[in-house]
Amino acid sequence: WLGGVLASAMMINLVVASLTGILVPLGLDKLGADPAVSSPVFVTTTTDVVGFFAFLGLAALILFY
Fold first, then answer.
1. Interatomic CA distance for residues 46 and 13, integer angstroms
2. From the CB of residue 13, how many other CB atoms can be counted at a distance below 10 Å?
3. 58-62: which pairs have CB atoms within 8 A and are 24 or more residues apart?
4. Per-residue model confidence as pLDDT tens digits over 4-62
């Protein structure tokens, strides 16, 4: 079960990281900010938080069911 939880959490994290890596620089560019300077902070934080909660959330679902 643990392998499935890890694989699912990694896939969720991959999708979120891809979307965040595309949308955050585009949004910052529209706002007039330099995407090269500020987007890595947002992308890294979002990816870490979503990965953490995806893994723990899926593990909790498997644990309770």
1. 9
2. 19
3. 58/5, 58/8, 58/9, 59/2, 59/5, 62/1, 62/4, 62/5
4. 999 999 999 999 999 999 999 999 999 999 999 989 999 999 999 999 999 999 999 99
C-beta separation of 58 from 8 below 8 A: yes
Block residue for tokens 């949004």: 27
Residue 64 above 90 pLDDT?
no
The tokens 């560019």 sit on which residue?
29
Q: Angle CA(11)–CA(34)–CA(20) in degrees, nearest 5?
A: 15
